[in-house]
């Protein structure tokens, strides 16, 4: 699923997310925190792949397949839920959001 936390600058969104993730069971959740979002979607996917322990394919479609397979492996095989937190998501390229449903 996808969640969204919004609020004015300085109200503590980032602090709240950090507190939430610190309270999660590390055996059940793999937290991936991304704060720099002002680069292209391929860079975002590579960052996610690295955080998931993947070397990362060269082409975007292959990289996205690797990421999806790793998430399924974690969720189904190890009962671990990856939690990808994107701070400053308003800086993400629009194309990124088109890939998510895939």
TrEMBL record:
User: InterPro entries from the entry?
Assistant: AAA_22, ExeA_AAA_ATPase_DNA-bind, P-loop_NTPase
Q: Which residues form the ORC1/DEAH AAA+ ATPase domain?
A: 1-100
Q: Which UniProt keywords apply?
A: ATP-binding, Nucleotide-binding
Q: Which molecular-function annotation in GO is an example for this chain?
A: ATP binding
Asked if the record carries the keyword Nucleotide-binding, the reply is: yes
Q: Which Pfam families match?
A: AAA_22 (PF13401)
List residues traversing the bilayer.
Answer: none
Secretion signal span:
none
What this protein is called in its record is ATP-binding protein
* Species per Swiss-Prot/TrEMBL record: Thiorhodococcus mannitoliphagus
């Amino acid at each position: 699923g996808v969640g969204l936390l919004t609020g004015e600058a300085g109200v503590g969104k980032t602090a709240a997310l950090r507190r939430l993730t610190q309270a999660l069971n590390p055996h059940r959740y793999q937290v991936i925190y991304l704060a720099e979002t002002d680069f292209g979607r391929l860079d975002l996917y590579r960052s996610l792949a690295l955080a998931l322990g993947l070397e990362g394919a060269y082409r975007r479609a292959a990289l996205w397949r690797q990421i999806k397979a790793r998430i399924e492996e974690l969720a189904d095989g190890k009962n671990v839920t990856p939690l990808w937190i994107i701070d400053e998501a308003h800086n993400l390229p629009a194309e990124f959001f088109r890939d998510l449903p895939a």
